Amino acid sequence: xxxxxxxxxxxxxxxxxxxxxxxxxxxxxxxxxxxxxxxxxxxxxxxxxxxxxxxxxxxxxxxxxxxxxxxxxxxxxxxxxxxxxxxxxxxxxxxxxxxxxxxxxxxxxxxxxxxxxxxxxxxxxxxxxxxxxxxxxxxxxxxxxxxxxxxxxxxxxxxxxxxxxxxxxxxxxxxxxxxxxxxxxxxxxxxxxxxxxxxxxxxxxxxxxxxxxxxxxxxxxxxxxxxxxxxxxxxxxxxxxxxxxxxxxxxxxxxxxxxxxxxxxxxxxxxxxxxxxxxxxxxxxxxxxxxxxxxxxxxxxxxxxxxxxxxxxxxxxxxxxxxxxxxxxxxxxxxxxxxxxxxxxxxx
Length: 348
Hints:
Order of helices and strands: EEHHHHHHHHHHHHHH
Structural class: mainly alpha
């Protein structure tokens, strides 16, 4: 936490660390904040202006790095701040206002901090000057207050970028120990309805594939609610299709060897319109048909037949005109496993 000296009083400027911000990025921000605090304590007005400019630019570059926005090391202050603000202003998140009025206030804060560079060039530290210019107390106060306003706004939204990135959620489902509370927070923060269809599907696949590893929390957080709800805005169609594919093929692309997940597969598809299913199920059927079982898996045919029977038993959950395709999916599990044959053999 840094402090601002204003009218000879210490007014706290809370710089709250965003969740999931890397240590070195946070340390860089803290270094600049401490320098600003030191400048204010010393009553060196030119140094305050210079440190404020550095803190603003540091936060802007941390935002761009976290967002994956390329920016050259030679990009100037205005470029960094404008690019960071653009990345932040439409970032969705819980408790983040999308009100046009709030966006206008944030935009005004950006305009204020963009003026810091010109003030610094005229009056601040960082240039060897032949003459020391008098700097009004109001200048220092306004610079410090404007810096605090924009930096705090940026760090708050940065937290939603870090927690809301879909690739981080997918990586968590793929590789991490998943805890129900954090998984729920991350799924909410990613703002699933606002993601593009391919990302929705990828997230659904990640939930399905992890649940197929007998991990309960992904099912509780990301699959059961989609089964219980017919809302395809909250639980989009690509997401539902991704769950089904993940449950069927798992992370490594092998056919499921258990019928335990069939009720979930059918359940998430109940709300999917027939036209979507008629387009997507044939693609899924071919993926399953070309997939095999892991090397060395024992007696897959017996398990396949159980999966086929379960699929047939849950056909009533599938919208009417797509049921024929669902039964074709079941029939695939009654076919010989292609991995049991060599390249010289033919399936009969």
